Known about the structure:
Blueprint: H1 6-19, H2 23-42, E1 45-52, E2 66-73, E3 87-91, H3 108-111, H4 129-138, E4 146-150, E5 164-165, E6 169-170, H5 171-186, E7 196-201, H6 203-214, E8 221-225, H7 238-244, H8 257-269, E9 284-286, E10 292-294, H9 296-303, H10 307-319, E11 323-329, H11 340-349, E12 355-359, H12 367-381
Parallel strand pairs: 3-4, 3-7, 7-8, 8-11, 11-12
Antiparallel strand pairs: 1-2, 2-4, 5-6, 9-10
Helix pairs in contact: 6-10
Amino acid sequence: MKKLTPFALVLLVLMAFLNCETEPVNSDFDNVQTEDSYRKIEKSKLQNRVLESEALYGNFIGNSYVRKLQIYTPPGYKKNGTKEYPVVYLLHGFPFSEKSFIDESVWDEWINNPYLFSNEYPDFPEEGFRLWIDSLISNGLIEPMIIVMPNAATEPYGFSFYTNSILNGNFEDFIVDDLVSYMDKNYSTIANPTGRAVVGHSQGGYAAFKFGMLHPDIFGVVGSHSGLLLVDALLEFAAVIEQENPNGFTGPDSSKFLTSAMYAMSAAWSPNLNNPPYYVDLPFEFDEYGSVHPVMEVMDRWHQQDVFSMLDIYYDNFNSLNGIYFDVGIYDELGTNLTHPYIVEKLNFYNIDYTFETYEGGHHTNMFERLAIALEFCSNKF
Length: 382
């Protein structure tokens, strides 16, 4: 038998090594690195941000011009990427917080207040806002989108109604000018109306309709949930407001919801810097017998900000939008469900295309169920 030379031994070892299946080890390592990087890139975010609003500088009552934001970015979003995303401007009602849609605890003082109209929380998703939106995207219900939630609270009135006011500050301009510019500058957005929607709940639903009428060059789609779409509805609560104030009007009071809301609406729609200490003109006054009556001069000012009245002027603007969605619960504790048929009638009169739905629920009980529907509507209109 011939002995193998040293060269032959080296050759045999080299051949054996080349035939070994070493690829799985390297492949596994590479896959781990790739998957980790992929997950890092793909993860959605919910971020705290702050915006200094020029529109709110120097307001008479001293509301802060520094505004907190919550901003959701979808899986796969890259700040400096080439892909542009639609943006939904999601406007709170009460609580007056940028966290109204993401933190159930901010509702505590409202739900546990014996003077308010409901002791039921909204239907917050168990997984939290970010993962809930992620699931809507992954299930194909909505396309990847950015959602921004601004804080539009005022002091001491709470409600701003997203309205320009010489008392509160210019909250309409804060949203339409400052916030939109901020989002387009700092995020990868579709920077035109085809990629912007404004959706809101309660006072935010009012603002969504109003912005759609006044700013079709900014927003292409609107959505309103339980919105105050007819201010004359407040007249129906005159008797309640009278009962809340047996000693006359003495200012906003957390134990008087409708009275406090009236002061807030007045701060937005009928401010009067020459009428201290609250600097508002109220739409009601007491007569000598202790009964409440409307002040028509003030109501006329309110009607200028009333979306039902504004439709008669801006119906062409509203009809130019890519989509209009609104809904209301048939058990709405504030009675906004009773006002929506008037809006529907006027939209029909002007041949404006819209989608309107009612559901079995109260003012805010089905908030996320309805928001999912509105976001899907927006997604289909982008």
